[in-house]
Amino acid sequence: SQLAEENLWALSVHEGESVTVNCSYKTSITALQWYRQKSGEGPAQLILIRSNEREKRNGRLRATLDTSSQSSSLSITATRCEDTAVYFCATDAGGLSGKLTFGEGTQVTVIS
Amino acid sequence: DPKIIQKPKYLVAVTGSEKILICEQYLGHNAMYWYRQSAKKPLEFMFSYSYQKLMDNQTASSRFQPQSSKKNHLDLQITALKPDDSATYFCASSQVNSQNTLYFGAGTRLSVL
User: Fold this and answer.
1) Interface test with A, best of B100, B104, B109 (most A CBs within 10 A)
2) How far apart are CA A70 and CA A55, in angstroms?
3) Cβ separation of A48 and B99 shorter than 8 Å?
4) Between B41, B56, B101, which is nearest A99 by CB?
5) Could you read off the pLDDT of B76-91 as tens digits, one per residue?
6) Is some CB atom of chain A closer than 8 A to the CB atom of B101?
7) Is A101 close to B96, i.e. CB distance below 8 A?
8) Which residues does residue A56 pair with via DSSP β-bridges, in sequence order?
9) How far is A99 from chain B (nearest CA, A)?
10) A45 closest CB neighbour out of B4, B42, B102
């Protein structure tokens, strides 16, 4: 079965700095998604990057995908305190079930 | 206003009892899901329904039974509860053919004593 995993448990940055979360996965995918989960809330999608795309941007967020090394990164620039959350990558192998496989998540804390 | 409503937000149950977790979505989506988030484990896929039909079931136990009475409802019945069932259960929905972008509810936190 495929596995998605972020590479670090936790990161701390000062407000205004940039931070990058990395993710690796084990099997072929049709797309990879990044989600953010704030305390007490459900995950919310940030970016979806298809397997034929190398980079995707959404405001201050930038995701990359390298299918040859089966890895992805999510970078956040000009961080704000409200970016404090757990960031997950989730892989989509396609098919009809709609199943996503989530990584364990990286806690990002933005310090003011 | 939340578009995916999960009830209750918190739930405490005794071992061996039965509980139903409620989920309603008002996004007009045709697919709904249940995921479980346990301590120190990744968010784990449980079920997917599309047009009120079961698409995939990744739970090993028959104690977990999804129930879809309406197309925008997907409740989760859990019987013979065990302490290991303690987790936060998230309902999600998506529009089929939208590359599986999931929209999650706020979750039901279940504690089994």
Assistant:
1) B100
2) 14
3) yes
4) B56
5) 999 999 999 999 999 9
6) yes
7) no
8) A63
9) 7
10) B102
3-state SS of A15-30 is CCCCEEEEEEECCCCC
B100 contact residues in A (CB cutoff 8 A): 31, 33, 92, 98, 100
Characterise B51 by phi-psi region: left (phi > 0), alpha (psi -120 to 50), beta (else).
left
Query: Quick one: pLDDT at residue A6?
Result: 62
Which among B79, B53, B56 is positioned nearest to B68, based on CA atoms?
Answer: B53
Residue A1 has pLDDT above 60, yes or no: no
In angstroms, what separates the C-alpha of A88 from chain B's closest C-alpha?
9
Burial class (CB in 10 A: 0-12, 13-18, 19+), A105: buried
Look at the block and give the residue holding tokens 């484990």.
B41
Please compute Rg for chain A using Cα positions. 13
Cα–Cα distance for residue pair A112/A22, rounded to 1 Å: 23
**β strands within B1-113, DSSP E:** 4-7, 10-13, 19-25, 31-37, 44-50, 53-57, 64-67, 75-78, 87-94, 103-104, 108-112
pLDDT tens for A25-56 read: 988 888 899 999 999 999 999 999 999 999 99
DSSP state of B28: -
Judge whether B53 and B71 are in contact, CB under 8 Å.
no
